[in-house]
Amino acid sequence: MPEPAVSRETLDGPDSGFEPPRHVALIMDGNGRWAAERGLPRGEGHRRGVEALRRAVRAVGELGIKILTIYSFSSENWSRPVTEIRDLMGLLRRFIRNDLAELHKSNVRVRIIGEREDLEPEIRRLLEEAEALTRNNDGLLLVVAFNYGGRQEIARAAQRVAALVAAGTLRPGDITADVIGRHLDAPDLPDPDLMIRTSGEQRLSNFLLWQSAYSELVFVPAYWPDFDRAMLENAIAEYRRRERRFGGLKARAGS
Length: 255
Ligand code: IPE
Ligand code: IPE
Ligand code: MG
Description:
Low-confidence stretches: 1-16
Number of strands: 6
Order of helices and strands: HEHHEHEHEHHEEH
Structural class: alpha/beta
Mean pLDDT: 93
Bound molecules: 3-methylbut-3-enyl trihydrogen diphosphate, magnesium ion
Distance between the termini: 27 Å
């Protein structure tokens, strides 16, 4: 029997009263334009973006959301000028050094998705340290997509599955969507319920392509450094107005 492509909990549907979205994904976009509009260097936009991130993590936790996945650096962002990449790597380093203790104190668990192999050893160490220090926390789960691309993640999953086939432990005919899903970077996490992108752009830019199959997408015109709690609450209110059907019918239709 073919396995369903969506998980059991998503099939349970929205008919049990409102729950805040369990998993929110955030495309934090528009730092450069925020800075340009003020005649400031792009790096200043990124610095202000980190402040917006601190506020967002706090607000998300307070609103009862369990998982927040943030797009912090894409596989394609390497095509930016080296000076900007240096700025962004410096910010990541500082974010982990300055904020990790505070996140840990707030019971936040940090996990990283994306390709780690080709990162500088120092950055890799910091990412590993963030995961190791917070691994037993059971508050908000903060998933940081760093050096991340959705297609690259699916390719990694394909490699892991291919290794099982090569080893003779899996037959090609047994590769279902569920099997692929179980070989993604964070296979145990539920798919995002709500995906928010700031800056007015209306595209995914290679973020969580597999996991966003049934996510509700909300596009916010503000640039990321200006993102605040009211905008987050508006996005959640918009999510509440949506009717999630997962390919089925309206919750009450025919019952
Ligand atoms: C998002 O802001 C931050 C990263 C991609 C790392 P941008 O740097 O993309 O800002 P815009 O889109 O150019 O304004
Ligand atoms: C997506 O934004 C990546 C991050 C927010 C980290 P980009 O600014 O890189 O996306 P495009 O180039 O506008 O599609
Ligand atoms: Mg951008």
